[in-house]
Amino acid sequence: MKLERREEILKAYETCIALYGVEGATQKRIAEEAEIARPLLRHHVGNNDELLIEVVKRYRDRCQISMQEFSRYPFSDQDELLNVLFKDNSNLTSATDTMIATNLIVVAQTHAPIKEIMKSWFDDVLSSFELVLSKLFPHVTKDIITIVATGLIGIYFNLDALFPIKNNDESFQKNSYQAAKLLLESLEKKGGL
Question: 75 — phi, psi (to 5°)?
């Protein structure tokens, strides 16, 4: 029962972070979202800092699983990769996860333990993109793969982060797709940029 309650609290905290940011995710809001009495938060998870660290680790772990699946997927060509990233990415990330990541990145600027966890999260994302690209473009050097992977991640995160204000903006999504395609096409031309 305690593990189930803990899970409910962590989910509620994530929802509150996505909706209100870390500062706005108060114990009162978390307790209301989890439908428990506020004093039980500390009992099940700990103090505010412990609760935040648990949410960051939970987010990182969830992303690791997603990135492992992504890097194992047998993409047949760059168009299939682009479609997954820019046309049908509902299984890769959700709007809630994007908002959580954005808020955790902000907090990481002033919170050293969270910064370390978020750095490992990003390193995992980068490694996954590099692995996918190295499978699609085995003739390209690691340095160039890293550069293009970094660019793809930037375009992908930008599209996701702007989703709340660019929702249903087909030209923005199309332009993001085309920018990523140009990057990938550079890998076909003599092995790099």
Answer: -60, 130
- What's the confidence (pLDDT) of residue 71? 95
Task: Specify the amino acid at residue 92.
Answer: L
CA–chain centroid gap for 103, Å, is 11
pLDDT of residue 170: 80
Q: Are 132 and 92 contacting, i.e. CB atoms less than 8 angstroms apart?
A: no
Question: Using alpha carbons only, how large is the chain's radius of gyration in Å?
Answer: 19
> Tokens 């923005």 label which residue?
172
* Rounded Cα–Cα distance for residues 184 and 148 (Å): 7
Low-confidence ranges of the chain (pLDDT < 70): 88-93, 163-164, 166-168, 190-193
18-28: buried (b, 16+ CB within 10 Å) or exposed (e) per residue? beeebeebebe
65 Cβ contact list (under 8 Å, min separation 6):
none
Structure tokens belonging to residue 186? 């550079």
Q: How many residues are present in the chain? A: 193
Classify residue 91 by burial, with Cβ atoms within 10 Å: 0-12, 13-18, 19+. exposed
